[in-house]
Amino acid sequence: MKLSRQLQVTAPVAAIDFLASAVPELSKGRLKDAMSKGAVQLQTKPVKRLRRSQQMLKAGDCLTLHYDADILQRQTVPAILLQDEKSYSLWFKPAGMLSQGNEWGDHLSLLRFAEQYFTPLRTVFLLHRLDREASGLVLLAHTKQAAAALSKLIASQQIDKVYQIRVKGQLSSELQQQGRICLPLDAKPCESRFVVQAYDTETDTSLLKVQLITGRKHQIRRHFAAIDHPVLGDPQYGKNNKHAAGLALQAVALSFNCPLRRRMQRFELPAELLLAKP
Length: 278
What we know:
Mean pLDDT: 95
CATH class of the largest domain: Alpha Beta
Structural class: alpha+beta
CATH topology of the largest domain: Pseudouridine synthase
Radius of gyration: 22 Å
């Protein structure tokens, strides 16, 4: 079952009682499950996920329910905490996990996983995103000060991010010598730098390390599809690039001059979590 409703509260009432009355198609058990997984939102500023079934609502409150039984029953491989710096932490996000939730819920997201991991000790702020199909390193902040300082570094492109990808075909010597793709995306300047690590003649695929100089949506995937070397397993870009293991794109390293610790921080994905070894 899949449905979306916008609901207006007319009198004080417990959240679960209001939902059960307004959406009789769903049992209280299903509604409580949807609430716990972030599929019910209270339209305040900012919007908040309504999780407590007994929370009292007041007249004038507006709720949205986005219920998808298929999404709500899905599970994902757990994220892994790799480094805890107290004011921020470094995580391994597995493929298939969202960076953050959407209107259909947040139980499949790294942000929610980290919130539950640290509850009730720390707040969690998402600093950057990694595509759902991709895996690798993601940085989270736990104080407003850390979130502001690290977000400033990201905005000014002072956090170096390195990715490992496997693409279809063998790059020409000219492309390898250039070592960069500077095709504009979304009418904005855009640059990806890369180094070929290995070429596999049996599969006709190349393993590359890529550094993003800019950060556009799906930049790596779009850039390499544009030069006819799509990332393997990409469900959206490129042709004839199927890959049984899924999207062959992984965030493998992060480095930055930490404004909180006042030292260089370098993080690398442990060897056992790498998708491929050159």
